[in-house]
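Subject: Interface between my chains keeps coming out wrong

I've been trying for a while to get a sensible model of this assembly. When I model each chain on its own everything looks fine, but I need the whole thing in one frame so I can look at the contacts. Pasting all components below, labels as-is. Any help appreciated, I'm running out of ideas.
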Amino acid sequence: MSLSARNQLKGKVVGLKKGVITAEVVVEIAGGNKVTSIVSLDSVEELGIKEGAEVTAIVKSTDVMILA
Amino acid sequence: MSLSARNQLKGKVVGLKKGVITAEVVVEIAGGNKVTSIVSLDSVEELGIKEGAEVTAIVKSTDVMILA
Amino acid sequence: MSLSARNQLKGKVVGLKKGVITAEVVVEIAGGNKVTSIVSLDSVEELGIKEGAEVTAIVKSTDVMILA
Amino acid sequence: MSLSARNQLKGKVVGLKKGVITAEVVVEIAGGNKVTSIVSLDSVEELGIKEGAEVTAIVKSTDVMILA
Amino acid sequence: MSLSARNQLKGKVVGLKKGVITAEVVVEIAGGNKVTSIVSLDSVEELGIKEGAEVTAIVKSTDVMILA
Amino acid sequence: MSLSARNQLKGKVVGLKKGVITAEVVVEIAGGNKVTSIVSLDSVEELGIKEGAEVTAIVKSTDVMILA
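Reply #2:
Try treating it as a single job with all components included. I did that and got this:
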């Protein structure tokens, strides 16, 4: 199965910080860029996200702005 | 001035398609990844976005999901 | 692999309308509720979304509001 | 008055967890699906959201993705 | 009933443009600011949104960034 | 450089509350309206956001709903 979200950036978890409701996951993608994600803490625990894990950062194209 | 959005990915416009209300901008970033953005057509015209232009794709971290 | 988005609602496509940049997909889920999605036209075409198809509507929990 | 958001799913609060800035509200809707929402803690307190309350989960259609 | 979204800005519709799937609504709020909204064309038609109408622009606080 | 986001509302920070992962920033804009933003705590610290600071609240038009 495939997801409609246009942006699927593969990388490795290089930072993980847990709050009460949310957690912050930093993913290093190709070319050295870092992508920061805030998801629910529940997701991080259910998916077993850990530093060093191979993950994909997903962004719907209507959530991307352009600075030009 | 700086923007709070954590994700600011520099690249070059490699695709541009205009609709009636929205437009689709494809940005090639470091490492060869492509980021697709849907913004208002008004923005594309006011900012003068064109293929080949150097731009930055911006994403708020609460809009990034993780596939793990 | 699993996606961090908390809301994954299975259903069947009962409506599909295509624009220039975006498309509208209506999914009937369990209990008779209908969920409307606006995604890029490219996604609809690449995923081969058609009326009658079994799909899952996905929503990140930070995008859900409460009326109480 | 009516809200433009296409997705308005009626249900009952079956889970509530409070953080410092945000809170997580779980709503059981028709057909047994559960919808998880992360809203500001202020909202939860001002609206008096409690377990067992009848509420409506609201999602803008541009925030719905499709897995197909 | 009340909506959890923190930002509810009252104003008057001063611009309206219809596409195939989406429509753009411009609302002039207190202090002369204009707020631009892109919603589904279906919403604009069902709600009977017209130039001159009194409406409220609604934004969830997780969708607001800060430039500082 | 300019940002594609249509809504750029200038104001002054009149409220600031810090959580573990996120922070809430309240901005008073022209006409006395208040706009509430939830951003990452990291952003608040890197941008040095403080009560009384002149900032701009930014919202992408696809994130604005209409109540009519």
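Reply #3:
Confirming on my end. The first strand of chain F starts at residue 7 and ends at 18.
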